[in-house]
Specification:
Largest sheet: 7 strands, mixed
Strand order of the largest sheet: 4-3-2-1-5-6-7
CATH topology: Aconitase, domain 4
Strand content: 15-25%
Structural class: alpha/beta
CATH architecture: Alpha-Beta Barrel
Number of strands: 7
Distance between the termini: 22 Å
Low-confidence stretches: none
Shape: globular
Order of helices and strands: EHHHEHEHEHEEEHH
CATH class: Alpha Beta
């Protein structure tokens, strides 16, 4: 599986309260959550993001509360993968659970810039910055996690495996 899109870049310690502010947590509507994604640090994000785009963060991306709303808002906004130096562990697990692809790669996190065009090969973990020609190696997803992401999350993956 390959993702390709333009980059929306953020810094270190982007917490779940910034990804989706608490004032919007009174809805379970994923489109409504996406409509407010990143608005407190990037008011232009929702109007600029396109399906398939890529989010790049720094260290400790997704820190803060354990709300699952944060990766849901990112995924529903159209982001195909989040690349960061490191992720908060609960955010990492919540992302996989809802089918949002995330990769840790410190070098890519530092080098890739806002607006760069990037592709990510989930089978190999290779991140290619198409704007600069530079490539980076992240740890590829094991096949069972690729299956969870491809099927849209853990629950959908488990449901589909029961049908077989």
């Amino acid at each position: 599986m390959i993702a390709k899109g333009f980059v929306h870049k953020y810094g270190d310690n982007v917490d779940t309260d910034v990804i989706i502010p608490a004032r919007y947590l009174n809805t379970a509507n994923h489109k409504e959550l996406a409509a407010h994604c990143m608005e407190d640090i990037d008011a232009s994000f929702t109007s600029a993001v396109k399906p398939g785009d890529i989010m790049v963060g720094g260290a400790n991306f997704g820190c803060g509360s354990s709300r699952e709303h944060a990766p849901i808002a990112i995924k529903e906004s159209g982001i195909s993968v989040v690349i960061a130096e490191t992720f908060a562990r609960i955010f990492y697990r919540n992302s996989i659970n809802i089918g949002l692809a995330i990769l840790e790669c410190a070098e890519a996190s530092r080098d890739i810039q806002q607006g760069d065009e990037v592709s990510v090969d989930f089978d190999t973990g290779i991140i290619s910055n198409l704007s600069t020609g530079k490539t980076y190696q992240a740890q590829p997803f094991p096949p069972f996690i690729q299956k969870i992401i491809e099927e849209g999350g853990l629950l959908k993956s488990l449901s589909n495996s029961k049908k077989m």
